[in-house]
UniProtKB/TrEMBL annotation, chain A:
InterPro entries: Spore_III_AF. The keyword rRNA-binding does not apply. Residues 194-212 have a biased composition (Basic and acidic residues). It comes from Paenibacillus glacialis. The chain crosses the membrane at residues 6-25, 37-55. This is Stage III sporulation protein AF. The lineage of its organism: Bacteria, Bacillati, Bacillota, Bacilli, Bacillales. Keywords: Membrane, Transmembrane, Transmembrane helix. Residues 193-217 are annotated as: Disordered.
Automatic annotation (TrEMBL), chain B:
Pfam families: SpoIIIAC (PF06686). This is Stage III sporulation protein AD. It comes from Paenibacillus glacialis. Keywords: Membrane, Transmembrane, Transmembrane helix. The chain crosses the membrane at residues 6-21, 28-49, 61-81, 102-120. It comes from the Bacteria.
Length: 250, 129
């Protein structure tokens, strides 16, 4: 019986609305026309269950018909304005796309330079540097929005001396010489003091790991962070240095 | 007490128009038109509140939005056509005013076309072929 309930509700509401519209109509001259349309609407709501039996729901058809009508009329009368608006919105979209693309490109370029600098200065192998750029909103109206670095992720590769000593040709597998080659190594040097638990978790997860791997890494990471802070004018919490995490493959 | 403001505005502009009509009929028309536009704008907020309430009501009752939209379109066309035709009629251009009214009527009828189409389609399907 729920459909009856719904249908009754709808009919009552449409009739009420139609009466209301009839009341607030401005003049008598429009009355006949308005009444015709309103009565057609009420007829449509009354017929709705029958229409639903034969075809799909009348509301969707009605909205589709109105849409095609509106499209036809805009093409016919003020096509220019709509096309102008369309062009403007399209241009906005393209601008956004371009901006994000250029930001991405700039981020890659900055990352490349950072990688080079780190490798030159600290002599540690860097696997990957990820730089996230965002546009700062302009302070003044005539100023352009300035891109700024929000975060820098540095992924360190294997320690160089460990790499040299390593007999394994695969330079991606990051086991130091001191431990068995099967044991996974996962070192995450996290310099933020707010998250000490990640360090401790990593330590406890691989407690077999010797301190020799741990300390040069940390020193290296500190060096890298200092270098980046100095050269790129960054905050230390924006920089994250990690050991490469490719040991999951083993 | 907004009605007092509206009535006061109307009376003042009527007096101004009566004074100025002998010398400059053009300015009298301008005053009349701007007064009616002002009152219209004044009422716009109230109409918006009413329409919002109607929409809320219809939504809670589960009425399809397309019906409400059609009804609101009818009101809008009727009001705007009436407004324009009366301003033009005040300026003494009876024929243009009637054309504006005609346009309003035709546009209201255009809203009826899809409804008529759906009803006729259903009736044709009801009848045996």
């Amino acid at each position: 019986m729920s459909w009856l309930n719904e249908w009754m509700k709808e009919v009552i509401m449409v009739v009420l609305l139609a009466t209301f519209v009839d009341l607030i109509l401005p003049s008598r001259s429009m009355e006949r026309y308005v009444k015709l349309v309103l009565s057609l609407l009420i007829l449509l709501t009354l017929l709705q269950p029958i229409i639903n039996l034969f075809t799909d729901s009348p509301e969707q058809k009605l909205s589709a018909a109105f849409q095609t009508q509106a499209m036809n009329s805009t093409n016919f009368t003020n096509g220019k304005e709509t096309t102008l608006q369309q062009i403007l919105s399209k241009a906005d979209q393209m601008k956004h796309q371009q901006q994000s693309q250029s930001l991405q490109w700039a981020g890659e370029e900055v990352a490349r330079q950072m990688k080079q600098q780190i490798q030159e200065q600290t002599r540690s192998l860097v696997q990957e540097v990820k730089v996230l750029l965002t546009l700062l909103p302009a302070k003044e109206a005539n100023e352009q929005a300035l891109p700024s670095i929000t975060s820098v992720d540095v992924v360190l590769q294997e320690e160089p001396q460990a790499l040299q000593e390593q007999s394994n040709q695969d330079h991606n597998s990051s086991q130091p010489i001191l431990i068995s080659p099967i044991a996974p190594v996962k070192v995450e040097v996290n310099l933020e003091p707010v998250k000490p638990e990640s360090n401790s978790r990593d330590n406890s997860a691989s407690d077999k790991k010797s301190e020799k791997v741990w300390s040069p890494n940390e020193k290296n990471a500190e060096d890298i962070v200092k270098l980046l802070q100095m050269k790129w004018n960054l905050q230390s919490e924006q920089i994250q240095v990690k050991q490469s995490e490719d040991d999951g493959k083993i | 007490m907004e009605i007092i403001q509206v009535v006061g505005l109307g009376i003042i502009s009527t007096i101004l128009i009566l004074i100025i009509k002998e010398q400059k009929p053009m300015f009298a028309f301008l005053i009349a038109a701007s007064t009616s536009i002002l009152i219209f704008l004044f009422l716009m907020g109230k109409i918006g509140a009413v329409i919002n309430e109607l929409e809320r009501m219809a939504e809670s009752a589960g009425v399809q939005m397309i019906y409400l939209k059609t009804i609101l379109k009818i009101i809008g066309i009727a009001y705007i056509a009436e407004f324009g035709s009366q301003i033009v009629r005040d300026a003494g251009q009876e024929s243009i005013a009637s054309k504006i009214e005609l346009a309003g009527k035709v546009l209201i009828m255009v809203l009826a076309i899809p409804i008529i189409g759906i009803i006729i389609e259903t009736v044709m399907k009801l009848l045996p072929a």
